[in-house]
Write a structure and sequence with these properties.
The protein is an alpha/beta fold and 238 residues long. It is 40% helix and 20% strand. Strands 3-2-1-4-5-7-6 form a seven-stranded mixed sheet, with helices on both faces. Helix 1 crosses helix 2, helix 4 packs parallel to helix 5 and helix 7 runs antiparallel to helix 8. It is elongated, with a radius of gyration of 19 Å. The protein starts with 10 loop residues before the first helix and ends in a 7-residue tail after the last helix.
Length: 238
């Protein structure tokens, strides 16, 4: 039988994979076709993973691909709502990509064992990133690393997150751009420009509702973000 040609990951999944620790036990939540765990095992970043999905259809696709690449001994498939059917001992690095920020929040809320300094959450929200960062901060999950990526003409953020036991202070822009670094990259600039447009729409709504104080606060954030773009670099928050 002719071997199947190996694939490459898109920029979004590739960034998630870059954040995975060497030889970590990985759980890929919402795995769909299981491309990421397959890639990580085939490139010898890890030796074992769980490909997890809420629906039987995507999980069947995942199993087909896992068998296609001869990785059934390394990658287990699990049907589960969030992390309900995964134990703490089965996971070191937990990837949640391609889902909304509120969905990610619910999964974290329902898996109390994630509050462990040895675990890492690799998060790629498709929406509600501000709400997600706020939740993480309030629950003592610290974003230790973050990158913006452009995939299929859309810009996303990928976060590596750890539990830090105690409350911590963050800069004013943390909720909006997290830990994006002073790299002056196209991806980072594009992400900030998208954020500015979103905040400008919010400001228009606040002004129409005569919410003056909130409007003024949002305008200040917008101006700070615009200054970052103008300088073509970000503050380093480390």
């Amino acid at each position: 039988m002719k071997p199947y040609r190996f694939f490459s990951l898109d920029e979004r999944l590739a960034c998630c994979g870059k954040f995975v620790r060497k030889n970590a036990k990985v759980v890929d939540v919402g795995t769909d076709h299981a491309y990421l765990p397959i890639y990580l095992v085939k490139t010898r970043v890890i030796t074992q993973a769980i490909a997890l999905d809420l629906k039987e259809g995507p999980l069947a696709n995942a199993e087909k691909n896992i068998n296609r690449y001869g990785l059934a001994e390394h990658i287990k498939t699990v049907l589960s709502n969030g992390l309900e059917n995964v134990s703490e001992t089965e996971a070191d690095d937990i990837i949640m990509s391609g889902m909304g920020g509120e969905v990610i929040i619910d999964i974290i809320k329902n898996a109390k064992w994630l509050k462990n300094v040895d675990k890492r959450l690799i998060l790629q929200p498709m929406s509600e990133d501000e709400k997600l960062r706020e939740f993480l901060k309030d629950n003592m999950f610290f974003i230790e690393r973050e990158e913006a990526v452009i995939s299929k003409n859309k810009v996303y953020t990928v976060m590596s997150v750890k539990y830090v036991v105690k409350k911590f202070n963050v800069p004013k822009l943390y909720t909006h751009i997290g830990q994006l670094k002073a790299d002056s990259s196209l991806e980072t600039a594009t992400y900030i420009q998208k954020k500015i447009k979103s905040l400008e729409k919010r400001a228009i709504g606040l002004k129409a509702l005569n919410k003056t104080l909130e409007y003024v606060d949002i305008c200040k954030i917008i101006e700070e973000l615009k200054r970052l773009i103008e300088r073509n670099k970000l503050h380093d928050y480390s």
